[in-house]
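so my prof wants the structure for this chain in the C-alpha cells format not the other one, which i didnt know existed until like an hour ago. anyway here's the sequence
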Amino acid sequence: DDGPLMAAAAAAACLALMFTLVLIDDDIPVQPTDFRDDYRVQLKRQIESKYVDRVIPNAGLCIAFYDFANIKDAIVYPGDGKLACGEAYFKVEFNLVVFRPIVDEWLVGSLSSSTEKGLSLSLGFFQEVEIPSSNLRTPYTFDALQQMWVWQYRNADTMEHINFFYEKDELVRFRVMSVDFPEATGPEANKRETPMKIVGAVDATGWGVSPGGLKTNERSTHRRTRLAGRSASAADRPYLI
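here's what i got, hopefully its the right format
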C-alpha cells in the first residue's frame, strides 16, 4: 500500500514550501572573553541570539540557523572600556531557515478570535494570520451575539439549512493569499504594526469548516459543528530586527 508513503511525501512537500533558506551577510562580534573558545560556536550563538524568532523584513520569520557559507578574517577594534571592549568582528555569510509560505499554499491554523472584520488564526509558532470576511465561504453571516462567523450551508439533497460556526480554538484550513511585510511610518506605527502578516481565504470547497464527516450539535437556535483537534500552544509574537 503506497498510501502512507504518498501522504508522507505530500507532508514533506508542504514543509518544503513553507520553509526556505535565506542567505544573510552580517558583521558578527565575538567578545574577548570568548577568544579561547571555538569562534564558530560563538558566531553561531551570536547569530541565533540576533535572528531566531525574529522577522527578517521581506524574507520571513527566522526559525533556525542552518550553516555557514563563508567566514572572512576578523577585524579587532580597540576598546575604550566603556562602549567597546575590543571585540573581534567577523564578516560572515550564513544561511537561515525562515518561515514564509507561498501564495496558494494551504495551511491549517486554530481560530484565535473573530470580529466583524474577519477571522484571526494562529499557527502555534506564528500568530499573525488574518482571514478577511470577504474571503469567507458564501453564504456567511456574523453572529454579533456570540461574536462568531457562520457559514450558512445548504444541503443540496435535503435542502436543509445548517449553520456551521467558526469556533474559537478550532482548526481551520485556509489557502495563502498573500504574505505582507507592512512598513512602519513612524515610531508609534512601528509599535502597533506586525512586521509580517499572512492573509488567507476559506472561500472554496475543502477550505474552512466542512460538513463532510463532522458532527453537529444543537446550541440555542443554531446548529454548530466542532472540528476535531487543537493547535500547538501559542508562542510569543515575533518582532522586527
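also thought this was worth mentioning. The mean pLDDT is 77.
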